[in-house]
Specification:
This protein is α/β, with parallel strands linked by helices. It has a single domain, classed as Rossmann fold (3-Layer(aba) Sandwich). Helix content is 55%, strand content 15%. The chain has helices spanning 17-28, 40-52, 68-82, 105-133, 155-174, 194-197, 208-220, 224-236, 246-257, 259-286, and strands at residues 8-12, 32-37, 56-62, 87-90, 96-97, 137-142, 180-186, 199-200, 241-243. The strands form two sheets. A seven-stranded parallel beta sheet has the order 3-2-1-4-6-7-9, sandwiched between helices. The protein has a two-stranded parallel ribbon with strand order 5-8. Helix 1 links the parallel strand 1 (8-12) and strand 2 (32-37). The protein is globular and about 55 Å long. It starts with 7 loop residues before the first strand and ends with a helix.
Length: 287
Amino acid sequence: MKDLTGRKCLITGAASGIGRATALAAARKGAHLVLTDIAEDGLNETVRLVETGGGHVSVAQALDVSDYEAVAAWADRVHAEYGALDVVMNIAGIATWGTVENLGHRHWRSVIDVNLMGPIHIIENFLPPMVRAGRGGHLVNVSSAAGLFGLPWHAAYSASKFGVRGMSEVLRFDLERHGIGVSLVVPGAVRTPLVNTVQIVGVDRGDPRVRRLTGLFEGHAVAPERAADRIIAGIEHNRYLVHTSLDIRLAYWFTRKFALPYEIVMRIANRRFSKLLATSDTLSATR
């Protein structure tokens, strides 16, 4: 998959952020795009941007990847008109953070449904035809730094992203015999709308300290275009682990080489975050 020219490429989460940036990057490489996102207006804007830039969108469909029946019906229509695809990219995702005593069942369920079951639904419906076509191809699954590390408040989010990582690790070897490469993308901080829409259960987003942390995150974050370029390069070079920033690459190396210091750092981080949570609880109780 060293050349995307004319390749049929599916991208979920294409309405904004990394998904949109990847759609634009793939279009510049000559890919024929099959796009989806739950946000129809944003998806239509992505289509407009691609076509304005001279790219080709074969089909764009607004749908919820956590809805298996909707994904299956759409896959049938796509395959009937265009046949098996060449590249499948699972980029769509949501984020909900919080400590275990604050997370409700709906928080766990929604994150798992979108971030883990969503990619599974896409894989179930689009990979078998790719295998049967016998042309090879490539699968991209976007996990997260939270799929590598035990970050504070990330239990539900990490459950979904570690799941994506584990699935990708298996498919990496399972699909090799079919000539289908697998890339696992592990972004760190990326400047996407998710920064402002992430739900932090039990924390006041208006707290000046929370706003300061958000500002630090945004200042440290890379542009979605950089992440997209890394994803495209991962496909072209059949690279399994795709980092979007050097800090995550170094941190992952650190955790594998120095397990004890990693545990110490995570414990300190969780204690500091817990103090912030305790203060937020006190403020809420006095209002």
